[in-house]
Amino acid sequence: MTEPLNQLPTGFQRILVGVDFSESSQAALNLARTRFPGATLRLVHVTDARVTAAPDLMGGVTPALPDPTLLHTLEHADAQRLGRDLRPGEEQELMVGDPVTGLLDAAREWGADLIVVGTHAQGALEHFFVGSTAEKIVARSPVPVLTVRAAR
User: Fold this and answer.
1) Fewer Cβ close by (within 10 Å): the C or N end of the chain?
2) What angle in degrees, to the nearest 10, is found between the helix axes of 99-110 and 133-140?
């Protein structure tokens, strides 16, 4: 007898879900909840410290002095949003910094055996200069990464 796909044992017990409050992030969270019902989910949001940086002509960013008031305001707002997404039995972690590094560090420190992240459609120019957060996570992660795109 064959079990339905959403009921198969997966072996994934500690799943880190990157949350950035986008549609694709919500789709990733919903998928993690439905496809891995027995796993412990840890919702991780990284407040992007690069908001205090300015784009440069070479496609990178020039760091500016961090504005502690702006970062504190963003952290507080992000904490409230993440708290609204959290369900009983789920864990959460809030960080400040680079989202790619933050998610990978959180996964390593927590001992995640799967990372689930949403993907975003980008314009060709934006993708060329900054790349995709999801692509960078896939390339650098020592554990499997499941990427999810929101339905259009």
Assistant:
1) N
2) 40
